[in-house]
Automatic annotation (TrEMBL):
Name the UniProt record assigns to this protein: Biotin carboxylase
NCBIfam families: accC, PRK08591.1
Pathway(s) the chain acts in: Lipid metabolism; malonyl-CoA biosynthesis; malonyl-CoA from acetyl-CoA: step 1/1
PANTHER family: BIOTIN CARBOXYLASE, CHLOROPLASTIC, PYRUVATE CARBOXYLASE SUBUNIT A
Catalyzed reactions: N(6)-biotinyl-L-lysyl-[protein] + hydrogencarbonate + ATP = N(6)-carboxybiotinyl-L-lysyl-[protein] + ADP + phosphate + H(+)
Source organism (scientific name): Capsulimonas corticalis
Keyword match Lipid biosynthesis: yes
Keyword terms, alphabetized: ATP-binding, Biotin, Fatty acid biosynthesis, Fatty acid metabolism, Ligase, Lipid biosynthesis, Lipid metabolism, Magnesium, Metal-binding, Nucleotide-binding
Protein's job: This protein is a component of the acetyl coenzyme A carboxylase complex; first, biotin carboxylase catalyzes the carboxylation of the carrier protein and then the transcarboxylase transfers the carboxyl group to form malonyl-CoA.
GO biological process: fatty acid biosynthetic process; malonyl-CoA biosynthetic process
Length: 449
């Protein structure tokens, strides 16, 4: 087992990894930018190294500084967390080159899934259904327009290297296609350093259901069940997630989870990973993408399975075999997560930064809070706006909803704008309580009200 791990991240996820390592008696090294001197992950780690200026390009995305920090502190492994360098194959490769174990999947899997076009080809070969569309990068505009017309409007133009809900455009009318294609290519080039885009049929009504995968380096792959992440803003940012997915019949659930295991095997996967699916109202489903990292909403899966995903990432990276088979995994009760962020829903979810004068977070039976904030904490304007994840569990969905409502009522955050009231509206909605979820849910039931 590793002796010392560097966590190449910040915020609640850095805290999450430090906690797992501490319980495993592994020492931790935090890295931080000049804006994060007082951050919780910096306080909780055994050692800390400043890696650069507030702008993440100079710090949390600065591979050379992070790797140097790991070497001078004598680490034997690096956990990338979520976001930043977490899906950067070249970072994982550099870790290996200097003799540090990357706590994540093999470089090849990251590369394959980081290119969404290559991912589609791999899935098709593995017998995992993909959304009708192209499996090549579109270069010639006339040719692309022809293909789009053949697939049928509306279509989605997606950046091959896209992520985090960025690099995606919907085209409803044929006439708009050429211009949008050009913008999408330019945007892909500036945002991801790769102009390749491809087309998918735009599916109007569906649920976003994803499957948690855990695999070791000895060929064992299991799934830990699904999560419903349909509640997304109009910019594809997840707001609320739950496990299991409500109103999903057992046979459909089995088909989706089995496909996810096939997908992970086809990717040559090891570590924790997630396969995202589009699930239509009749429960036909398509591969959407694979995230070759931990997922923000991983705690709901941990809650219903009792399996600590971060500890298993660490164990698997150190060469251990999974200690359980698929048949030994059991799911109990229902878990829901709310992503509480410093954003203003009334101003199109504009991020809000500043000093948190007061914070009161909920607790009690069946409640887990993953957060980096505390009274007096200054939310920096440079990074993502997550303040806290509230995760609740109960024996059934109705109980979990009631518990979340109670939790949201207990929250008090003074000093920054938050989306707390917006979340309360979600849970009060009758459609949500019925489990009537699609990716249009928030636009239909909450934004308008
Ligand atoms: P999750 O499903 O775990 O919520 P998201 O796709 O929302 O994952 O992304 C998680 C985090 O990673 C966000 O902070 C997002 O901005 C960042 N992220 C994801 N993909 C990329 C990428 N290709 N480039 C830069 N940041 C990314
Ligand atoms: P990212 O890497 O940015 O997360 P995804 O491929 O997962 O990109 O797509 C982000 C979101 O866009 C999905 O969660 C889903 O809501 C929506 N989406 C993706 N593909 C389609 C599609 N073919 N039709 C309609 N919506 C889609
Ligand atoms: Mg996605």
């Amino acid at each position: 087992m590793f002796k010392k791990i560097l966590i190449a991240n910040r915020g609640d996820i850095a805290v999450r990894v430090i906690r797992a390592a501490r319980e495993m008696k592994i020492a931790t090294v935090a890295v931080y930018s000049e804006a994060d001197v007082d951050a919780l992950h910096v306080q909780l780690a055994d050692e800390r190294v400043c890696i650069g200026p507030p702008d993440s390009k100079g710090s949390y995305l600065n591979a050379a500084n992070i790797l140097s920090a790991a070497l001078i502190t004598g680490c034997d492994a690096i956990h990338p967390g979520i976001g930043f360098l977490a899906e950067d194959a070249s970072f994982a490769e550099k870790c290996a080159q200097i003799g540090l174990k990357y706590i994540g999947p093999p470089v090849k899997s990251i590369e394959m899934m980081g290119d969404k076009i290559q991912a589609r080809m791999t899935m098709e070969k593995a017998g995992v259904p993909i959304v009708p569309g192209t499996n090549i990068a579109l270069r010639d505009p006339a040719e692309a327009a022809k293909i789009a017309a053949k697939i049928g409007f509306p279509v989605m133009i997606k950046a091959a290297a896209g992520g985090g809900g960025r690099g995606i455009r919907v085209v409803r009318e044929e006439a708009d296609f050429p211009k949008t294609l050009k913008t999408a290519q330019m945007e892909a080039e500036t945002s991801f350093g790769n102009p390749d885009v491809y087309i998918e049929k735009y599916i109007e009504t569906f649920r976003h259901i994803e499957v948690q995968i855990l695999a070791d380096e000895h060929g064992n792959v299991v799934h830990l069940g699904e999560r419903d992440c349909s509640l997304q803003t109009q910019r594809y940012q997840k707001m609320v997630e739950e496990a299991p997915a409500p109103n999903l019949p057992a046979p459909a659930r089995k088909r989706i989870c089995d496909a996810a295991v096939r997908a992970a095997k086809a990717a040559g996967y090891a570590s924790a990973g997630t396969i995202e699916f589009i699930v239509a109202p009749d429960h036909t489903f398509y591969f959407m993408e694979m995230n070759t990292r931990l997922q923000i909403e991983h705690p709901i899966t941990e809650t219903v399975t009792g399996i600590d995903l971060v500890k298993w990432q660490i164990r698997v990276a150190s060469g251990e075999k999974l200690a359980f088979s698929q048949r030994q995994i059991e799911w109990t009760g229902h878990a829901i997560e709310v992503r509480l962020t410093a954003r203003d829903p009334l101003r199109d979810f504009a991020p809000s930064a500043g000093k948190i004068a007061t914070v009161r977070l909920p607790g009690g039976l069946g409640v887990r809070i993953d957060t980096q904030i505390f009274s007096g904490y200054e939310v920096p304007p440079y990074y993502d706006s997550m303040l806290a994840k509230i995760i609740v569990w109960d024996t059934d969905r109705a109980g979990a909803i009631a518990r979340m409502q109670r939790c949201l009522d207990e929250v008090e955050i003074v000093g920054v704008k938050t989306d707390l009231e917006y979340h309360k509206k979600i849970f009060a909605s009758e459609a949500f309580q019925k489990g009537d979820l699609t990716t249009k849910f928030l636009a239909t039931h909450v934004d308008a009200s």
